[in-house]
Design a protein that fits this description.
This protein has 4 helices and 28 strands. By secondary structure, it is mostly beta strands. Strands 10, 11, 15, 17, 18, 20, 21 and 24 form an 8-stranded antiparallel sheet that branches. Strands 1, 2, 5, 6, 7, 8 and 9 form a 7-stranded antiparallel sheet that branches. Strands 12, 13, 14, 16, 19, 22 and 23 form a 7-stranded mixed sheet that branches. β6 and β7 form a beta hairpin. The radius of gyration is 24 Å and the shape is globular. 46% of the residues are buried.
Length: 450
């Protein structure tokens, strides 16, 4: 089961040919036993009890349901510490299992949720449908890797079209569904933004233009940067985001378009399954050409004595010095990165201690994309990577990445009038911002794709 989980989560993140927007349902904020049906209909998902229109699934908060999370002895609470979704009380007993159905309208291309507390002799089966046709199935039993009391077990699926998932619940089972994420093709502002990736050939060389490695697309996300990183939910003290299944001994860079603006996430190592050795990282991220600066929206871990961070809201320089154990990840998220800005990232001494290495317990470094294979970077102390945010290649005259060509774009073009071989305003790529570029911009006036 473990290999299937890993491969499907990777497929969920990487298979779309166009950027896929990610949605999250975390079942938080509801009172115990609240019936859940259409509370998330604005996201295109509803919930029901399969085959029983008289009942609905309900919220289980910490300490319940009675069988799965009674909070006594070794029976641990909900992994998110707040709430999840379970089958309802039937005639005064939680021992009657009722199957939970999720309906997606419009269909989704990927889905993942966690089932908490698969232990004892329990087995949970999830069946996936496209219309009336079953297209996939995943069965997980107690004792399988990643199961156990208080443990959250991922159920990932990827397909061209998923309209329904039914979670088959046997009798005498205490469980809850938590942190449902799903994807649909992206449409709207920011869906086409791309980031150029370059790395200097040696520390301090600065020859980025001669060493461009390619472009990545950010993951469009219908939520905040904190929700995208999903720190501590459901795996403790770690990244749980839907766009990435971290690899052991690897540092990961992931961009996302969130409600906090374009976000860069740094994720070191992995939590599920456990990494063998833990590690250490000291990172330095500087953003240029961004007048209003950025903000650190996630610190992984925020309250650990071995971790330290610098950078206030509105700053352009953010550093971290972090250590983590085999159970967990470390990292951070920086949000509010504007179009046309340049960011420089490196592993370097940030805490002033010559005795603490900037890299330990990692041997690889990758940048991930919503549409393409990840780009491998050279993992070397003080060897900088450059990221430049470019507009959608399908709408190159959208110079400020607003998903429209309008007056601000015209002002940007006029401000760069004249020779400029590296300017985004050189739309036709002839090394000069001039009349031809102006004609291209005016011809594209209006919403991108409109």
């Amino acid at each position: 089961m473990l290999n299937r989980v890993i491969s499907l989560v990777v497929a969920f993140a990487l298979t779309p040919l166009a950027p896929a927007q990610i949605f999250v349902v975390d079942f938080e904020g509801f009172a115990e036993q609240t019936e859940i049906s259409d509370q998330y209909a604005d996201l295109g998902v509803t919930f029901s009890i399969d085959g029983d229109p008289t009942r609905l699934p309900v919220i289980a908060n910490e300490g319940s349901p009675t069988i799965g999370f009674n909070g006594s002895g070794a029976d641990r609470p909900m992994p998110s510490q707040l709430g999840g979704l379970t089958d309802p009380l039937v005639d005064g007993s939680f021992t009657v299992g009722l199957d939970i159905a999720m309906e997606f309208d419009p269909p989704v291309t990927g889905a993942r949720f966690f089932v908490a507390d698969i232990d004892g002799s329990e087995t949970i089966v999830a069946r996936v449908y496209d219309g009336a046709k079953q297209i996939d199935e995943l069965s997980v039993s107690a004792g399988d890797p990643g199961t156990g009391n208080g443990t959250s077990t991922p159920f990932p699926f990827a397909a061209p079209s998923i309209t329904r998932i039914v979670v088959d619940v046997p009798d005498n089972t205490g469980f809850a569904i938590d942190f449902l994420t799903f994807t649909r093709p992206c449409a709207g502002p920011g869906c086409g933004v791309r980031i150029q990736v370059a790395q200097e050939s040696a520390p301090g060389r600065g020859d980025f233009d001669e060493n461009v490695l390619g472009f990545v697309r950010p993951f469009p996300f219908a939520g905040s940067a904190a929700e995208f990183y999903a720190y501590n939910v459901p795996q403790g003290d770690s990244w749980n985001g839907p766009a990435l299944t971290p690899e052991p001994d690897r540092s990961h860079v992931v961009f996302a378009g969130t409600s906090d603006g374009l976000t860069i996430c740094l994720v070191h190592d992995r939590a599920f399954p456990d990494d063998p050795d833990g590690g250490r990282a000291e990172t330095w991220l500087e953003i240029t050409d961004d007048p209003d600066g950025a903000i650190r929206t996630v610190a992984d871990d925020p309250d650990t004595a071995s971790d330290s961070f610098t950078g206030e809201p509105g700053d352009s320089l953010f550093t971290s010095a972090q250590e983590w154990s085999p159970c967990c990840t470390d990292g951070m998220a920086i949000s509010g990165i504007d179009c046309r800005t340049t960011s420089l990232l490196q592993f370097t001494n940030t805490d002033g201690s010559i005795g603490s290495p900037a890299i330990r317990g990692m041997v690889e470094w990758f940048v991930y994309s919503a549409t393409d294979e990840p780009i491998e970077l050279a993992l070397e102390e003080d060897r900088r990577v450059r990221f430049i945010v470019f507009p959608d290649p399908e709408c190159p005259a959208d110079l400020n990445c607003s998903d429209a060509v309008d007056f601000p774009d015209l002002l940007l073009l006029l401000a760069q009038w004249g020779p400029c071989s590296t300017c985004l305003e050189d739309i036709d790529g002839d090394g000069d911002v001039g009349f031809t570029d102006l004609l291209i911009l005016l011809a594209a006036w209006g919403p991108c794709g409109g």
